Amino acid sequence: MQVGRRSFIRRITFVALGSQIPWVISCHREISLNTGGVLTEKQAEIADFTFDFLLPEDGFGPSARSIRAYPYFIWVLQDPLYDPEQKEYYKKGLDWIEEYSNEEEGQPFHTLTKNKKKGLLQKAAKTGWGESWLSSFLTIGIEALLGDPIYQCNPEGQGWEWLQHNPGHPRPNKDNRYPAILQRKAERTPITKLDQL
Amino acid sequence: MSKKYDVCIVGSGAGAGPVIYELSKAGFKVAVLEKGPWYRTKDLTKDEITAVRRSVYTPNLEDEPQVLEEQTEDGNWEAESTFSSGNDFWNGSCVGGSSNFMSGYFFRMKPNDFQLHSKYGEIDGANIVDWPISYEDMEPWYTKVEEVVGISGNAKAHRFKEPRSTENFPYPPLVENIISEHLDKASERLGYEMIPTPRAILSQPRERRNACYYSNYCGSYGCSSDAKGSARVALVREALLSGNCTVIPNAKVFHLETDGNKKIVKANYYDAAGTRQSIEAGTFIVAAQAVETSRLLLMSKNKEFPNGLANNQGQVGKNLLFSAGGVGGGYLYARDFDKKTFEEFMRPGVFVNRSIHHFYEYEDEKSGKRIKGGAIDFLFEHANSMTRAIKQKWDNRDHLLYGTTYKKHLSSYFKDLRKIKFEVFADWTPTDQCYIQLDPKVKDKWGDPVARIRTGYHPHDIEVGRYLAKKGEAVLKQLGAKDIAWSVSGDPPSNLQAGGCRFGTDPKNSVLDPNCKAHEVKNLYVTDGSFMPTGGSVTYTWTIYANAFRVAAHLLEVLKRGN
To answer: Which residues of A touch B84 (CB under 8 A)?
Structure first.
């Protein structure tokens, strides 16, 4: 089930309580996540946990952490060419989870136990808005699982190896990877000879 | 820049390539204005992020949306920008156009396709006409494409085989997966003729082009060995050797200017920096792919042509065509075959290359009437890993899979089965509900009105598609595939577009004459698929290439006469 992304709004509105919780309670992580300047600390924590939830470290194939799904997500959000509405949707969903946590558990997401967080996301997956948003996050996770390691994901091709997938060659290099290849769209010089190619 | 060329060509794909190649080689000064960049072979990798997941080979939809009009269940038409819907309708926007990213399944149209009206009669609500030329007129040019662009295959005899002036293809067939033999046997048991699929892919090297190296990534990807017969590699790059060809990349033509005497004098365009430029030439050729060709003519309004260039009869943009049909598929499970056979099925890279043309014409069971049918191509599911993994997110009740459940499902999908597919190709019956106009509101980043595409289909096409899909299903069952499913719809495939500037002998109901010169304009030719009044039941590219060679030969005569 997919909900039209541009017409989508979360149907249940809720006044977030997150801002009323003292920072000292929420700041329980030993290592803070790199927000890349595109997420708040709270959004970053929800995003990181969500990737773990979708592609867990379960002894069966690579996990979100081993394929670097979260850093890949930050790269996507930092991409000025990526669909801005889609990026907004990813971020809005993080806020919706925070709202949902307050609504269902009476406290912010980052204060929940791991099991409670997991339970909340399972519950969200049963709603239209939650399933659609989690699906979009899983797509990012899949890109990180099977993308070329040049994008700082899928280290040493572990996703390909796990799925016995032949990714083909040639592989991208620094000049022809996305978005470097888009420099071609700025070329103005007329081409008249083979040696220009 | 304003410099006088003999010929100015808008576009550089399959419809433009042969003209660029022939006129340059003959010594005429040719300028090519291509809206997209020139991607070099060294730029083209098997990176799924670049080729599939981002808008690299196509325009950014925010900068260049299109508007699609689709019919709702209550019969009304609803228009939505592709930026809003995310339903990208572009295909390859670069030197060589979409031919860079084709799979290269190449078939000639058949003699009856040129006489659809005469051979099969009227269909209510359709605008079917015969072509003004015959298969015999086109045959030499089909043969020329085999040689110049390069087609590999085996011209096996079958009941609807097109007459050929040569015995066989110039290049031997590509290496096939063992599944091809299994398909041959399965269809034989059903009494269907299975034939090898010709491909516009070199199985042997030739000057400046290497043979196919079976990369496992063909369609949607540019070719890294130059084996694929894209217009960029096979024709435009070769034209540079003449010293007469100038390709200006990232040049978006927005207006063709006439002199008050029904002659184009100038193509106005924006360069990569957004600066307005122009090119002067004696003859102009538009080959920007069907939708964008009609759009450019409609945008080129002036006092002589208040409704758009060559459109005083209101025919530009009308009778747009796609390819009708659908897709189906089933699964070859490891558990259903011996280990060795399944391992052979899983061998990546090598091709299936099998088709059925047995039902190119059939008899309707109820009416006994002869019906124009179509073609069925067989292929494996594309190797794209992300695309396959994304599809596996949903269970059979359309609920999201995630966590360990998803990972186990994904692992099994990649390792324990292979999906074998078929694609059905039928005529897209031309109607008054499939056309191109300019959108009154939505503009591109240059401020020009975008194409608004009404995509109505004729219900007849669905019936034919279903008939063919059932045949495809029967073959997959015989093959031993399981969980077979197919779907036939009126959804237009954006990469298979034609029509909009029909050729014909009567200026009242066609835009172009039989040589693809505009009836109303002295020096305008259209050489992409826009000329086609009907599309046949195969992919268009070979016919577009062949027709462009045919028109190029005519143009050479005209230009040599100095006319």
So the answer is: 6
Chain A residues with CB under 8 Å of B400 CB are 1, 125, 131, 134-135, 138
DSSP letters along B505-548, please? S-TTT-SB-TTSBBSS-TTEEE-SGGG-SS-TTS-SHHHHHHHH
Partner-chain residue, chosen from B60, B272, B414, that has the shortest CB–CB distance to A164: B414
Any domain includes B12: no
Angle made by CA atoms B484, B486, B490, in degrees to the nearest 5: 175
Terminal Cα-to-Cα distance of chain B (whole angstroms):
26
A80 touches B: beta carbon within 8 Å: no
**Is position B542 within any domain?**
no
What are the start-end ranges of the H helices in B114-211? 116-120, 135-145, 179-190
Which of A165, A195, A196 should we substitute to test contact with B (largest number of B Cβ atoms within 10 Å)?
A165
| Structural domains in chain B (count) | 1
Residue B191 structural domain: 42-249+318-500
Could you tell me if A191 and B247 are in contact, meaning their C-beta atoms sit under 8 angstroms apart? yes
Mutation target for B interface from A132, A185, A195: give the one with most B CBs within 10 A: A185
Query: What is the value of pTM for the model shown?
Result: 0.95
Written as tens digits, the pLDDT of chain B (563 aa) is 456 899 999 999 999 999 999 999 999 999 999 999 999 999 999 999 999 999 899 999 999 999 999 999 899 999 999 999 989 999 999 999 999 999 999 999 999 999 999 999 999 999 999 999 999 999 999 999 999 999 999 999 999 999 999 999 999 999 999 999 999 999 999 999 999 999 999 999 999 999 999 999 999 999 999 999 999 999 999 999 999 999 999 999 999 999 999 999 999 999 999 999 999 999 999 999 999 999 999 999 999 999 999 999 999 999 999 999 999 999 999 999 999 999 999 999 999 999 999 999 999 988 899 999 999 999 999 999 999 999 999 999 999 999 999 999 999 999 999 999 999 999 999 999 999 999 999 999 999 999 999 999 999 999 999 999 999 999 999 999 999 999 999 999 999 999 999 999 999 999 999 999 999 999 999 999 999 999 999 999 999 999 999 999 999 999 999 85
Give the Cβ contact number of residue B261 at 10 Å: 8
Residue B288 lies in a domain: no
Q: Which of B45, B398, B407 sits opposite A171 (nearest CB)?
A: B45
| CA atoms of B80 and A96, how far apart (whole Å) | 28
In a domain, B289, yes or no: no
